[in-house]
Each structure stands twice: as structure tokens, then as C-alpha cells.
Amino acid sequence: MTDDLEILNPDSLGIYKAIVNYTTFLEPLEKQINALLDAVRNGKGFVGIHGASATFWNSPAYLDMIGGKFITHDPNKEFLVKIRSAGAVVPHPITKDIDDFTIQDELYIIEGDITKWEVLARAEGHPLSSTKCMAMVEFIITLLVMMAEH
Predict the structure, then answer these.
(1) Is 95 strand, coil or helix?
(2) Cα–Cα distance measured from residue 19 to residue 22, given in angstroms and rounded to the nearest whole number
(3) 101 pLDDT exceeds 80?
(4) N or C terminus of the chain: which is more exposed, having fewer CB within 10 Å?
(5) Would you call 21 helix, strand, or coil by DSSP?
(6) Nearest-5° angle of CA 77, CA 82, CA 88?
(7) How many Cβ atoms are within 10 Å of 34's Cβ, its own excluded?
(8) Is there a contact between 142 and 129 (Cβ–Cβ < 8 Å)?
(9) Sign of torsion, CA 117 121 111 145?
């Protein structure tokens, strides 16, 4: 795990099967963004957790890949994450054994084209977790810190 953007190069990324982004407010160089996007296009998995939409704002291509840009969030509060009971949620192997649950977190509001995504979880009408296929690789974006633990 690192927040050192120097790892975003073809040689370093080549040893991983998937890339997880949990950073916020970082601005990689164009060559670093290109290395990340090329890695995903060429088959690396990608998981964006929580603040993944609040980073790399200097790259429209990255924001397009993840589906949007962080705008704001509610105060930290308890809310219901709907997986099975929410309308407009796609049944998916990632969530097939997960029931709706309550969590305390920040409810992120994202600006972007969510129509390119399969929404897997919602809270208060907002998409929280989604998946997208880029090239032949499916990857997941979750706006919850704790989602990976459930």
C-alpha cells in the first residue's frame, strides 16, 4: 500500500493483478495516469474505494473511467445500504450473498454519467457501489469505506 504516485508506471503496475485506489486529492502526472489507464485497459482489475472519486481530478480520463467526480458528502451518519431491496440495482455475483445493511459513514454525492455503470448498492437514492466493464475487465467502485468488510 502506498500513496507514492511513482508506482504508477508500467513496470511497477505489471506485477499486480488489480489496483486499489483509496487516495484523496492527489494529482498524478499525465504519464502516471496513462500507465494506470493502460494497465486497466490491458486486463488489470481496478477497485476504487471511498475517496477514489475525490482524487486525480486533474484527469478527465480517470474520472470518466470511475464514473464521476466527488462533489460533497453528508455528515457522517447512519444509513441503510440497499442491495436486495433497492430498485435499479443489478443482481451481481459480487453482492449475491450480501443483504441490505446499516452502516455509519459519509454518504458521497458524485457528479457524472452513472448510466455507464451497473449499480450494485444504493442509499437514500444515491448509487454507492457499482461495476463497469472497460476493455474486457470488470471493476468495482464503492463509495463506502466499510463495504469491503461486509
Answers:
(1) coil
(2) 10
(3) yes
(4) N
(5) strand
(6) 130
(7) 16
(8) yes
(9) negative
CB atoms within 10 A of CB 81: 23
Backbone φ, ψ for residue 97 (5° rounding): -105, 15
Q: Give the residues across from 85 on adjacent strands.
A: none
For residue range 24-49, list pLDDT tens digits in order. 899 999 999 999 999 999 988 888 88
Q: Looking up cell 437514492, which residue turns up?
A: 125
Among 43, 42, 37, 68, CA closest to 55: 68
| Mean pLDDT, rounded, of the chain | 83
User: What is Dmax (Cα atoms) for the chain?
Assistant: 43
The kind and range of the H/E element at 69 are strand 69-73
53-to-25, 37, 102 alpha-carbon distances in Å: 9, 15, 22
Q: Are 18 and 44 in contact (CB under 8 A)?
A: yes
Q: Cα–Cα distance between 137 and 40 in angstroms, integer?
A: 7
In angstroms and rounded to an integer, the radius of gyration of the C-alpha atoms of the chain is 15
Supply φ then ψ for residue 89, to 5 degrees.
Answer: -120, 130
Instruction: In whole angstroms, give the CA distance from residue 12 to residue 40.
Output: 13
